[in-house]
Amino acid sequence: SSGINAEYGVSYRVITKTTRESFQQEEFHVRRRYNDFHWLCSILTQQYPSHIIPPLPQKKVFNKYDPDFLRLRQLALNKFLCRIAEHPILSTSEHFFLFLSARQLELDEAKKAAGLKKFTMPQIPIVNMETPFKDTSEYLDSFGKLLSSLSAESTKLHKEQTELSNSLMTLPPSLMLWANSEESLEPVLSKFGAGVGRVSEAMEGLVSLKEEMFTESIKEYQRYVTTVKNVLRNRDHMQVAKDFFTTTVLSKQRDLERLEASEPGKSFATFFGKSPAQVKSEKISRLQQEITTLSNEGEQAGDALVVASAAVRSDIERWNINKEKDCRALFSSLSAAHTDYYTNSIAVWQELVDFIDKE
Questions:
Q1: Which SS3 state, helix, strand or coil, does residue 6 take?
Q2: Which of 7, 103, 243, 321 is packed most tightly, with the most Cβ within 10 A?
């Protein structure tokens, strides 16, 4: 549930029920502000750059206390927490545990202690790089365009249906005025006006439900597309770093081979009493040390890339499975909502037909 405090603004009641041994209790009740949710999302993104962190609903500057907006945001925040709780890695984060269980003062202190580092990508361009996630990137581009198109059409349809519902609501009062002026038609006009009112209320409910279910789902997956792209970009930069070490080591090894095959020559160091052979030996030693250091760093980068790729692959598979489940549930619920609306509307109109025929 959400609540509004004049000093602290809107807060949301978060109830957690769990059987996990890592929690000291089976049930927790806390209140959290949107900024707390935003911190959790940000710290998880920083902690798990190779995992898909569920996106948050966007901030709103104007009309942020509007009841309909708060209701939709509450649903979106609940979905955000549920998705984290279902994730085998994210759900084990100590930050998630604190968010769900800590008192507000304790959480605020933990937020200060944890800090948030602004993540910056390495300044290494990604140009024509082959990655195992190329098909996924192309799919995200096309899926993002499809969602944008659906969002535009959904907004247009919502506006038209809202206008139609509002127009229908103006009919009953007009029909009642007519009924008051013609006694013989009063029963029919009154009954018809009441029927139109019931249908318009049902349409208003359907429009509101479609916005809650369809429009908000599209917005969430638009944010998801951006999130998954960022995760892929993080992983690609790790591949760039690994390739950089590999290329640099090969270049250094070629330099070493040329140096070893060359004849000792005079250099600036020979003026300080070092022989050409000694200078060459020191250069070879430095190159060998550089190659060893770079090779070790390259191995670490390669290991990190393997772990990141496995995490990305696993999360994308999980995301696709959840997306399919969400789509099936969404369109099933929408179909049921339309069925209820038209069934109830038909019943209203049939009732009117029967009433008028008896009159």
A1: coil
A2: 243
Question: Is residue 256 within 8 Å of residue 283, measured between CB atoms?
Answer: no
Residue 156's pLDDT is 93
| 120, pLDDT greater than 60 | no
How many CB atoms lie under 10 A from the CB of residue 224?
22
Q: How far is CA 194 from CA 57, 139, 198, in A?
A: 39, 50, 6
Task: Determine if residue 331 is left, alpha or beta; phi over 0 gives left, psi from -120 to 50 gives alpha, anything else beta.
Answer: alpha
CA distance 312 to 306: 10
For the chain, what is the radius of gyration of the CA atoms? 32
- Distance from C-alpha of 43 to C-alpha of 115, rounded to nearest angstrom: 8
pLDDT digits (tens, 9 = 90+) for 39-95: 999 999 999 999 999 999 988 766 778 888 888 899 999 999 999 999 999 999 999
pLDDT (tens digit per residue) in 324-335: 999 999 999 999
CA dist., res. 288 & res. 208, Å (int): 69
**DSSP calls for 70-86:** HHHHHHHHHHHHHHHHH
Give 144: exposed, middle or buried? Use CB within 10 Å, 0-12, 13-18, 19+. middle
Q: Are 178 and 320 in contact (CB under 8 A)?
A: no
Q: Are 248 and 301 in contact (CB under 8 A)?
A: no
Q: What is the pLDDT of residues 6-30, one digit of tens each?
A: 446 789 999 999 888 877 888 999 9
Residues 138 and 225 sit within 8 Å (Cβ to Cβ): no
Enter the pTM of the model.
0.85
Q: Which two tokens stand for residue 329?
A: 């549930």
Q: Can you tell me the distance from the alpha carbon of 1 to that of 78, in angstroms, rounded to the nearest whole number?
A: 10
Encoded tokens for 32: 């959290």
**Other CB atoms within 10 Å distance of the CB of residue 266:** 10
Calpha distance 301→305 (Å, rounded): 6
Q: What is the pLDDT of residue 291?
A: 95
Identify the three-state secondary structure at position 14.
strand
Phi, psi of 30 (to 5 degrees): -140, 165
Given the structure tokens 């509002």, which residue do they identify? 166
Q: How confident is the model at residue 352 (pLDDT cuts 50, 70, 90)?
A: very high
